[in-house]
Write a structure and sequence with these properties.
Elements: H1 7-13, E1 22-25, E2 37-40, E3 50-51, H2 53-57, E4 66-69, E5 74-78, E6 83-85, E7 95-99, E8 104-109, E9 114-118, E10 126-129, E11 134-138, E12 144-148, H3 200-210, H4 234-237, H5 248-258, H6 318-328, H7 366-376, H8 436-446, H9 470-473, E13 482-485, E14 492-495, E15 501-504, E16 516-517, E17 523-524, E18 529-535, E19 541-544, E20 549-552, E21 558-562, E22 574-578, E23 590-595, E24 601-608, E25 617-618, E26 623-628
Parallel strand pairs: 1-2, 3-4
Antiparallel strand pairs: 4-5, 5-6, 7-8, 8-9, 10-11, 11-12, 13-14, 14-15, 16-17, 18-19, 18-26, 20-21, 21-24, 22-26, 23-24, 24-25
Helix pairs in contact: 3-6, 3-8, 5-7, 6-8
C-alpha cells in the first residue's frame, strides 16, 4: 500500500452538486427565480477573460461577448462583426477610467481632459488566472504563490517512476525459454532428470526455520484507514467538529498552503492511455516475442560441467533456501512482530493538538468547506482517483507484451536461462536444483498472502494515515481574519489573525478632490459631461447619448435638440456646437448658433454668415454638440 497524504483532502473538500441556477459568493441559497447566474460579494469583483489584442482578434465569439484586453487595459465587446473598445470615447458616453499601475487612476472625458486621483492599496487576498494554465494567489501579506492546473503532458519523457532498466529497444531481446533454443547439444535433448526435488511443503519448512517471525498473511496488516484504528480517543471518535466560519479566501489560503501543486482543472489531465503518450522511444519493445535468436551457439559462458551431459548434485539446505528467498524478495518482511497493530496508542508523532485525546477545536462543516472551495475553484478536479499520476504503473492500454524490465532480458549467459530442465540447473552435472524463481513459486504456493515487500507497511506515522476525519485533518488550529468597510466614509479595515488592524481609504481627503464616497462605500465620480451627439443634415441622430432626440423644424438649417427629463439641473447648462467646414460661394463662411435654451431642449441654426454683407443664408448641415452641467 502506498499512502498518499493528499487523499483526505479530496474526500473532504471536493463534493459538488449541479444546479440549473448558479449563485457564486455570499448568500448562495438566495437567488432570483429569473437568474441563471448571480454574483454577490461586498469585497470581490468579477474578473473577465484576459486576452492580448492578437488573441482577441483571433476569435469570433457570439454577439455580446466580453473580454478584458491586456494591451489596451480596457473592456471590449463583440457586436457580431468586430470588437468594440468600451474605453473609446466614440463608443461610450464620453469618459473612461484607466488604471496607471502605480496606485493612481486617470479619468478622461470626451474633450481630452484628464483627472488623476490616488487610490489606496488593499491587503485582501487575490487569485489571478494567468491564462497559461496557472493561477497566482496573493495572500494578505502580499506573498504570491503560483498554482499549476496543468496535468500530465502525455509525453513519454515526462513519465515518473519509469523502471530504471526499461528496455526501450525490443530488437535484441531473447524470450529466455529453453524450448526456444536452437542447436541444443544432443546430451540435453531428453529434458529428463531423475534426482530428488524439494516439495512446496519442504520449502515452507525451510523458510519457517530461517524466518520464525515471517509475516505469511498480509491480509491482516493495517491498511492505513482511519476507520481501521482501534481505541481512538473519545474526543475524535464522533468525527464531528463545529467551528467558526472561514471566508472563501481563508479556505483558499489554507488549501494552497497545504497543497501548493493542487490540480484545480481536471480538463487537461493526461488520460492515462498508452496510445496518448508522445515521444515514445522509436525502438520501444512493445512485443517481447521476437527477441534473442535462440541459437545455442549464441550463448556465452556455458558451464564446463555440462560437457558430459550428466547431473548429480545434492539437495538445497535451509540456508540456501533462505538465500534464494532473500534474492527474490529483497524487501521481504521477515518479522511480523513489529507491524502496526492498529491501536491509537501505537501511533508515532501524533500532532500536539490531539495529544490530550480531546477534540476541542472548531471547524467548518463539509458543506461549508465544499461551498468555499467551489466558489474559489470552479474548475476544481473533485475526483483525484481518475487523474494520471505520471507513474508508469498507472498507464492503461500498455501493450500486452511490453518489456518493462530490461534487467531480466536474456543476456546470452547460461545462468540467465529460464525453464532449464531440472537435471542441468546446478551447473555441475546430474542433479536437480531449485532456481530462485522456483523457490519463489513454492513460497507463493504455500503462502498466497505472503507480504513480500515490507517497504509499504504502515510506519505508525500520523502523516501516513488515510481518511482522517475532516475536523481533525487541519491540525485544530484555525484562526479568522476579518475585512470590513464603513460605507459612509469608504474606509476599509482589515484585522489579521492576531487581531491587529490596518485601514485603507477608497477616497483621498484633498479639498480639491472631485471623487466622493458612493452609497456602497466605493469611489464615486459624476462627470460634468451630460450628453454628446452627432446629427445628420436631415435631423436624424447619427450617434448621441441615450434619450436624445432631434426635431427638424420648418425651414433650412433649423433644428430642435430634445433632452430627456432630469438630464440637466436647470436651463443654464453649457452648450458647445460645431459643424463641418465648407467651400464655394455662399457656403464659405459657415456659422452655427443656438437659441430658446430650456431644461428640456434648445434650438440650433446653421447657415452662411456671408462676412456680414447680408442676413445669414441658412442651409441644412450636419452638426455636433456637447452639453455640460456643473
Amino acid at each position: 500500500m502506498k499512502l498518499k497524504i493528499f487523499l483526505p483532502f479530496f474526500i473532504l473538500f471536493c463534493p459538488f452538486i449541479l444546479f440549473s441556477q448558479v449563485k457564486v459568493g455570499d448568500n448562495p441559497n438566495v437567488i432570483d427565480t429569473s437568474s441563471i447566474l448571480e454574483l454577490e460579494s461586498p469585497n470581490k469583483a468579477l474578473v473577465l477573460t484576459r486576452l492580448s489584442s492578437a488573441q482577441m482578434q483571433s476569435i469570433s465569439p457570439l454577439n455580446g461577448a466580453l473580454i478584458y484586453n491586456t494591451d489596451t487595459s480596457c473592456v471590449h465587446y463583440y457586436n457580431g462583426v468586430q470588437w468594440i473598445n468600451l474605453c473609446n470615447s466614440a463608443n461610450t458616453t464620453g469618459f473612461s477610467f484607466s488604471d496607471n499601475g502605480d496606485g493612481t487612476i486617470t479619468l478622461s472625458d470626451a474633450l481630452g481632459n484628464n483627472l488623476t486621483f490616488n487610490g489606496a492599496p488593499e491587503t485582501i487576498t487575490t487569485l489571478i488566472d494567468n491564462l497559461d494554465g496557472t493561477y497566482t494567489f496573493t495572500n494578505e501579506n502580499g506573498d504570491s504563490t503560483t498554482l499549476s492546473t496543468s496535468g500530465f503532458s502525455g509525453d513519454f519523457t515526462d513519465l515518473t517512476n519509469v523502471p530504471a532498466n526499461l528496455d526501450t529497444d525490443a530488437t535484441d531481446d531473447f524470450d529466455g525459454e529453453w524450448a526456444s533454443l536452437n542447436n541444443v547439444p544432443a546430451g540435453f535433448a531428453d529434458d529428463i532428470d531423475d534426482d530428488t526435488q524439494l516439495t512446496d511443503a519442504q520449502v515452507a519448512t525451510a523458510v519457517n526455520n530461517e524466518f520464525p517471525n515471517l509475516d505469511t498473511d498480509s491480509t491482516d496488516d493495517f491498511d492505513g484507514e482511519w476507520a481501521s484504528l482501534n481505541n481512538v480517543p473519545t474526543g475524535f471518535a464522533d468525527d464531528i467538529d463545529d467551528d467558526t466560519q472561514l471566508t472563501d479566501a481563508q479556505v483558499a489560503t489554507a488549501v494552497n498552503n497545504e497543497f501548493p501543486n493542487l490540480d484545480t482543472d481536471a480538463t487537461d489531465d493526461f488520460s492515462g492511455d498508452f496510445t496518448d503518450l508522445t515521444n515514445v522511444p522509436a525502438n520501444l519493445d512493445t512485443d517481447s516475442t521476437d527477441d534473442f535468436d535462440g541459437e545455442w551457439a549464441s550463448l556465452n559462458n556455458v558451464p564446463a560441467g555440462f560437457s558430459d551431459d550428466i547431473d548429480d548434485d545434492t539437495q538445497l539446505t535451509d540456508t540456501q533456501v533462505a538465500t534464494a528467498v532473500n534474492n527474490e524478495f529483497p524487501n521481504l518482511d521477515t518479522d511480523a512482530t513489529d507491524d502496526f497493530d492498529g491501536e491509537w496508542a501505537s501511533l508515532n508523532n501524533v500532532p500536539a493538538g490531539f495529544a490530550d485525546n480531546i477534540d476541542d477545536d472548531t471547524q467548518l462543516t463539509d458543506a461549508q468547506v465544499a461551498t468555499a472551495v467551489n466558489n474559489e475553484f470552479p474548475n476544481l478536479d473533485t475526483d483525484s482517483t481518475d487523474d494520471f499520476s505520471g507513474d508508469f504503473t498507472d498507464l492503461t492500454n500498455v501493450p500486452a507484451n511490453l518489456d518493462t524490465d530490461s534487467t531480466d532480458d536474456f543476456d546470452g549467459e547460461w545462468t540467465s536461462l529460464n525453464n532449464v530442465p531440472a537435471g542441468f540447473a546446478d551447473d555441475i552435472d546430474d542433479d536437480t536444483q531449485l532456481t530462485d524463481a522456483q523457490v519463489a513459486t513454492a513460497v507463493n504456493n504455500e503462502f498466497p498472502n505472503l507480504d513480500t515487500d515490507s517497504t509499504d507497511d504502515f510506519d505508525g506515522e500520523w502523516a501516513s494515515l488515510n481518511n482522517v476525519p475532516a475536523d481533525i485533518a487541519d491540525g485544530d488550529d484555525n484562526t479568522v481574519t476579518n475585512l470590513t468597510q464603513n460605507t459612509s466614509t469608504g474606509v476599509i479595515t482589515y484585522s489579521n489573525e492576531d487581531s491587529d488592524s490596518q485601514t485603507a481609504n477608497t477616497v483621498g481627503i484633498e479639498t480639491d478632490n472631485s471623487i466622493s464616497v458612493g452609497t456602497n462605500g466605493g469611489a464615486y465620480y459624476e462627470s460634468p459631461i451630460k450628453a454628446i451627439g452627432k446629427i445628420a443634415s436631415n435631423g436624424n441622430v447619427t450617434r448621441a447619448t441615450s434619450g436624445i432626440t432631434v426635431t427638424k423644424l420648418t425651414g433650412n438649417g433649423y433644428y430642435r435638440v430634445n433632452l430627456p427629463a432630469g438630464m440637466v439641473s436647470d436651463g443654464n447648462y453649457i452648450i458647445q456646437l460645431s459643424q463641418p467646414s465648407r467651400d464655394g460661394s455662399g457656403n464659405d463662411d459657415p456659422g452655427i448658433s443656438y437659441r430658446n435654451q430650456s431644461s428640456s431642449s434648445f434650438e440650433v441654426i446653421v447657415g452662411d454668415n456671408d462676412n456680414g454683407g447680408s442676413d445669414r443664408n441658412r442651409f441644412d448641415s450636419e452638426f455636433m454638440f456637447t452639453i455640460l452641467d456643473l
